[in-house]
Amino acid sequence: xxxxxxxxxxxxxxxxxxxxxxxxxxxxxxxxxxxxxxxxxxxxxxxxxxxxxxxxxxxxxxxxxxxxxxxxxxxxxxxxxxxxxxxxxxxxxxxxxxxxxxxxxxxxxxxxxxxxxxxxxxxxxxxxxxxxxxxxxxxxxxxxxxxxxxxxxxxxxxxxxxxxxxxxxxxxxxxxxxxxxxxxxxxxxxxxxxxxxxxxxxxxxxxxxxxxx
Length: 213
Fold this sequence. Notes:
It comes from Allorhizobium ampelinum (strain ATCC BAA-846 / DSM 112012 / S4) (Agrobacterium vitis (strain S4)). Residues 1-20, 170-213 are annotated as: Disordered. The protein is mainly α and 213 residues long. The chain has one domain (8-176). It contains 7 helices and 2 strands; from the N terminus they run H-H-H-H-H-E-E-H-H. A two-stranded antiparallel ribbon has the order 1-2. The longest helix has 24 residues, at 84-107. The two termini are 36 Å apart.
């Protein structure tokens, strides 16, 4: 009987031992895409991803992050159904990062970054813990998604500037958290084509943030 394929979360936390990183990352992306297919309803326009609800104990941290950041987006007027895919990926990457950090703490209780590894021929060598490299990759993914959502002070200010510009053009910013300018009352026919070069931030059919593919 062949070996059972490891769970992508566990593989990521352990630094992808025994499997190609690309294969694991494809599984992560597949999970995120499946989550975005959960139908939104009037009662629940931003439902928790089904992949989380089917394994609540396993995805406990991701669920906690989802609920917190979902509320952050709602209060900022930026929570839209099309963003669920990107937010799912953000929550999973956050859980990966925290799991890798915890595993690093357990493996190196006295600190440091190097561990002893016994090679196949019995030789012992000193190498950098694989989670160091993985955490760097996870942080890169998180920073990109944080920028898209405005989850850091600097990126939040960047989005606020875009929203302010949109408001002066008579367009509601993102989720419509702020009132539009008097120009919004003008008929659409009187507005010149292309009057809002940043309209893609508001259109309901725009690509969700963090969609890399």
